[in-house]
Write a structure and sequence with these properties.
By secondary structure, this protein is mainly alpha-helical. 61% of the residues lie in helices and 3% in strands. Among the domains are: 246 residues, no CATH class; 77 residues; 139 residues, Intergrase catalytic core (hpI Integrase, Chain A, Orthogonal Bundle), CATH 1.10.443.10. Helix 1 packs across helix 3, helix 7 crosses helix 8 and helix 12 packs across helix 13. The longest helix is centred in the first third of the chain and has 30 residues. 38% of the residues are buried. InterPro entries: CB (IPR044068), DNA_brk_join_enz (IPR011010), DUF6596 (IPR046531), Integrase-like_cat_sf (IPR013762), Integrase_catalytic (IPR002104), Integrase_SAM-like_N (IPR004107), RNA_pol_sigma-70_dom (IPR014284), RNA_pol_sigma70_r2 (IPR007627).
């Protein structure tokens, strides 16, 4: 097969997976009653497609092929289950006879309510449902929630384990319980629609399939809960927002702002559906909730025949009511836009300026985009350029980035003198700085350039502006982290021969307390734990006996082991690092290797999805699994040692590696 054909096949597989993954996982969850296991079986089916389709060709019905393959693997799993040993033949036969399309919509809806079960915290419910039903990556979910990617990945993994441990049934909840879970379900559908309406990353401004899926789920939910005003309010909001899709992009895929859109291209059928859903929300009665208020804002836009006829005062009043219900900084930002349109750009800018110090918005590109728009309207073009450039550096969506950079280049003058970005580059290029110092200083200066603008003249960077950057970026950081960034700014100021930019930053006292190493009684209990998996048992023994850093041990490859002499070698950026171990590790390592001759020693639990495929150095050629991450290894060790730790927090891998010392 030629590379071009193989590429086309892989593109087809990726497209089918994005569209079918939620239905496949839902159908599998119905069978195995375990969301985590269902996702793993679905991934196995995807890997089978990647292996077979390039040679055999894409089947006529690729979705059915994936579903059939996944169900067969699920049946095999059920047959292997000890608890179902007596009934596995009967169950497998029954499952094989079912139609692939049977109960798809109900299954997806059940999966949504299972993902939003009360045993899970609110943030975990939304993250898990977005992952399973929306197909969003952890990074995309992180941007939707304004949190880190690592936090989202941990939430999803923990949510799957909780559902399995609590044996949550795969069924729709009864009436009273359904109402209690509705808020989480609505939030999830809303976020799925938002990701489709304004994609956080990629080469396209929109992901229409996500919008359609959110609309489908919302309409299903409206049939299930016809007396819930908020359900109809969300459907109305999505219908009207979706009506603008054709007008939101220009000929080259560039964004078109709302006031510049050709309203003749708005889909009138979707608008009428939105109006009808809004009427049903009003008939349901009760005080308006967040989705009804947002739908009312969308209705105000849809009722205006031209942008000039938009009733911005009414929209600003609706946002004021929404802020009282949902006092989030993002809603405040939207209210600022409405007030700026109603009462002039300065009114909007005054509100936006109060939000720039909110840590939740420090990486939110729309904050800088809105501020740049107001500054441009006020004729403050150099400041506007800085904001547009910052917004462009924060967004991961290619059309949006190009649009913002174009706005940055419009109506601005050239900056004279050395800029902050130029000075930072020269400072980090010094030959007297070692690699670790460059990395540390680079983190500080990149944040300074991001928040203040790399094109800002160095002469305009002040201690006051630097203090604002620190307050937003590192106010909640540990004292040691704060002081490290402060020292970097002081060093940069001295090198540049300018006033000390850290003058307004007090040094924070650092605690000298260190968590103690793990004591012998706790270690003995750890080694004797009967439920420890071979991978963890080997890693923990290795860290204890070698006293190596956890990241170094996790970087070990099978080909770098000298089992006979009980030693290994890891190549790091600072050169090779040698490890040696004792008899405990020596007994365990051969069983962990199991005939493998190359690739990572410590492997992840499952094979990675195509969208998250690691590099060749971190992928096992024999099993297809990736290298075990430090974050996952740390989590498992903390969970295992919580009963042993008097504080109840669990020990860290760092404490384990230092316990022999």
């Amino acid at each position: 097969m030629t590379p071009m054909i193989a590429q086309n096949v892989h593109g087809a597989i990726d497209a089918v997976w994005k569209f079918e993954s939620a239905r496949i996982i839902a159908g599998l969850t119905r069978m195995v009653r375990d969301v985590g296991l269902a996702e793993e079986l679905a991934q196995d089916a995807l890997v089978a497609a990647l292996e077979q389709w390039p040679g055999q060709g894409v089947p006529d019905n690729p979705g059915a092929w994936l579903m059939t393959t996944a169900k067969r693997r699920a049946i095999d799993h059920i047959r292997r289950g000890e608890r179902l040993e007596r009934k596995h033949e009967e169950i497998a036969h029954a499952l094989e006879q079912r139609s692939l399309e049977e109960g798809v919509d109900d299954d997806v809806l059940r999966l949504m309510f299972v993902s939003c079960h009360p045993v899970l915290p609110a943030e975990a419910r939304a993250a898990l449902t977005l992952r399973l039903l929306g197909g969003l990556t952890a990074l995309e979910i992180a941007r939707a929630f304004l949190v880190s990617e690592r936090a989202v990945a941990q939430r999803i993994a923990k949510a799957k384990r909780t559902l399995a441990e609590e044996r949550v049934p795969f069924e729709l909840p009864p009436g009273p319980e359904l109402a209690g879970r509705l808020a989480s379900v609505l939030e999830v559908i809303y976020l799925i629609f938002n990701e489709g309406y304004s994609a956080t990353s990629g080469d396209d401004l929109m992901r229409p399939s996500l919008c359609l899926e959110a609309l489908r789920l919302g309409r299903l939910l409206a049939e299930l809960a016809p007396r819930q005003a908020e359900v109809h309010g969300l459907v109305a909001l999505m219908e009207i927002q979706a009506s603008r899709s054709a007008a939101r992009t220009g000929p080259s895929g560039e964004p078109v702002q709302l006031h510049e859109q050709n309203r003749g291209r708005w889909d009138q059928l979707l608008i009428r559906r939105g109006f009808a859903a809004m009427l049903r929300a009003r008939e349901a009665g009760g005080p308006p909730g967040p989705y009804v208020l947002q739908a009312a804002i969308a209705v105000s836009h849809a009722q205006a025949k031209t942008a000039q006829e938009t009733d911005w005062e009414q929209i600003a009043a609706l946002y004021g009511a929404l802020v009282r219900l949902v006092p989030s900084p993002v809603v405040q930002l939207n209210r600022a836009v409405a007030l700026g349109m109603a009462r002039g750009p300065q009114a909007g800018l005054d509100i936006v300026d109060t939000l720039t110090s909110d840590p939740a918005l420090k990486n939110y590109h729309l904050l800088s985009g809105v501020r740049g728009d107001f500054l441009a309207k006020l004729g403050r073009h150099d400041e506007a350029r800085t904001e547009f450039e910052r917004a462009a550096s924060l967004t991961h969506n290619a059309p949006e980035r190009a649009f913002l950079l174009k706005r940055a280049a419009t109506g601005t003058s050239r900056v004279a003198g050395v800029t902050l970005g130029q000075a930072a580059e020269r400072f980090l290029a010094r030959e007297d700085l070692d690699a670790e110092t460059i990395r540390s200083y680079g983190q500080t200066l990149r944040r300074m350039c991001l928040d203040l603008g790399a094109g800002t003249p160095l002469a305009e960077v002040t201690a006051g502006k630097t203090s604002t950057v620190f307050a937003v970026a590192w106010n909640g950081a540990a004292a040691k982290t704060w002081n490290r960034h402060r020292a970097a700014v002081r060093s940069f100021s001295a090198w540049a021969s300018i006033d000390d930019l850290s003058a307004g930053l007090a040094r924070k006292p650092e605690s000298r307390e260190r968590r103690p190493s793990i004591g012998p009684p706790q270690l003995d209990a750890l080694w004797e734990c009967p439920n420890t998996a071979p991978r963890e048992k080997t890693l923990w023994r290795l860290l204890h006996e070698s006293a190596a850093a956890a990241r170094t041990a996790l970087s070990l490859n099978v080909e770098d082991l000298d089992l006979e002499n009980r030693r290994g070698r890891v190549t790091t950026k600072n050169g090779p690092v040698r490890l040696s171990w004792r008899s405990g590790t020596a007994r365990l390592l051969p069983h962990l290797v199991e005939g493998r001759t190359r690739g990572p020693l410590f492997l992840a639990d499952r094979r990675p999805a195509p969208a998250r495929m690691p590099g060749p150095a971190d992928l096992c050629p024999d099993t297809g699994r990736g290298r075990l991450s430090y974050e996952r290894a740390e989590y498992l060790f903390k969970q295992a040692t919580r009963p042993l730790d008097p504080s109840g927090a669990g020990y860290t891998l760092h404490q384990l590696s230092h316990s022999r010392r």
